[in-house]
Every structure is written in C-alpha cells, then in structure tokens.
Amino acid sequence: MKIKGLVKKIYFAVRKIRHKILKGGVMRPLILHDFYQRNSERKVHLGCGERILPGWLNADIYNGDLDMDITKRLPFKDSSIDYVYSHHVIEHIELEQFVAFSKELQRICRAGAHIRLVTPDLKKMAEIYAHPEHNSDIIDHYCRETRYKSPAEFFNMELRQKGEHKYIYDFDLLKLILEEAGFGDILQSKYGESSVPAFHGIDLHGYRIIDKISLIIEARK
C-alpha cells in the first residue's frame, strides 16, 4: 500500500508540473485572451479535477484548460465572469484561504453573476454519525477502503480524508462568509438541481452516495 501511495504521489506531481508548463506561465495570458474573445457569457469551473465541462473554462492545478491555484489571486478581470462552479474543492483549503477566495469570487463576478459551491456538509456528517442505524450503507461505502467500518471511522474519514481535508463547513458558516464578501440571495440547493439553468444537473459526477454528504450552496452578486 505504501508503494502504491508513493506511485500515486509521483504520478500527480509529474502531471502537476506538466500542466503548469503547458497551461500556465506564458500560456496563461493566451488561454485567457481566447476565453474572453470567444465567450460573451463566461462560465468558470474551478478545481475541475478529471471532469471537464463543455462550454466552461475548466481550471485546476493538474488538469483542465488552465493551470490555477484557488489559494492565489484568480487570473480573471474584475467583473468579467457570469457563473462560477466548484465541486468538492473548498474543503481542501484552510478557512482563511477560503475567506480570501470568496472575496476573489466577488471581485471577478459581474453584477448578477451566480456561484455554486459543493462541499462536504458538517451537519449531514454529524447526523450520519449520530444515527448509524439509519445510514449503514453510507458508512460502509465511505469506509470501504479503511480498516474499520464504523461511525467513528466514517466521521474521521470525511472530516480529515487522510489530511487532505482542511476545513468542513455547515450552511450557516458558508452563508456568513459569502455575505461578508458581498454576495446575496444565498440559498441551500439540492444535489443535481438548480433554478439557475447553467447549474441544473451539473453535479452529477457519477460518484455514488456523494449527494448524501454534500452541502450545496448558491449565491448571487
């Protein structure tokens, strides 16, 4: 298992370097210029991972159309983006970094722009832990590769994810941070559903049971 983990780390490190060379650095201005020229309605998918959304600018540190680190200043013009989508990304950065990121979203979004953030839900996780008798399928699924299939193991796995998760939110805290950044119309949404056409059905990554532990929040500038 240690060898497998090391190979995985090396693989993603190589991909990250290659992506930075090909989709970052001197290429970034050219990619962004093309994005602005080709799209009057601009949609940005931040932290795309392996999933590429057609019609969106897909950005990540190792994949997508553009090399981008959301803990840094976002490389977009002020008031130039119409939609921002991010799926299970913000839990991988520290709270202070997310606060700065929310202000960056406010800066790059046009008036009336919409954002949609999907992240693990602390409240749902706590409810699953408190009532394992009703959630054995969820616990078994998220503990399938761990030593113990138990409520405590589930809670720690989702809270920490072997050190990859930095901060887990509930709706009230996310709402407060986004309000402080200047967003309004902040609502909790259902997984895969939205009254905003650009977001409807967008969460359906094919990850089994992920909707059971996800918090989905939408806001408008």
Question: What is the topology?
Answer:
Layout: H1 2-23, H2 27-38, E1 43-46, E2 57-60, E3 66-67, E4 81-87, H3 95-108, E5 109-120, H4 122-130, H5 136-142, H6 151-160, H7 171-181, E6 184-189, E7 214-220
Parallel strand pairs: 1-2, 1-4, 2-3, 4-5
Antiparallel strand pairs: 5-7, 6-7
List keywords for this structure.
single chain, seven-stranded mixed beta sheet, 7 strands, 38% helix
Entry summary:
This protein has 221 residues and is of the alpha/beta class. 38% of the residues lie in helices and 19% in strands.
Protein described:
The chain has helices at 2-23, 27-38, 95-108, 122-130, 136-142, 151-160, 171-181; strands at 43-46, 57-60, 66-67, 81-87, 109-120, 184-189, 214-220. It has one domain (2-119, 163-220): Rossmann fold (3-Layer(aba) Sandwich), CATH 3.40.50. The chain has 221 residues and is of the alpha/beta class. It has a seven-stranded mixed sheet. The chain has seven helices and seven strands.
- Give the overall average pLDDT: 93
Shape: globular
Going by CATH, the architecture would be: 3-Layer(aba) Sandwich
Specify Rg, calculated over alpha carbons.
18 Å
The level-1 CATH class: Alpha Beta
- Annotated CATH topology: Rossmann fold
Provide the spatial order of strands within the biggest beta sheet.
3-2-1-4-5-7-6
Strand content: 15-25%
Poorly predicted regions: none
How many beta-strand elements?
7
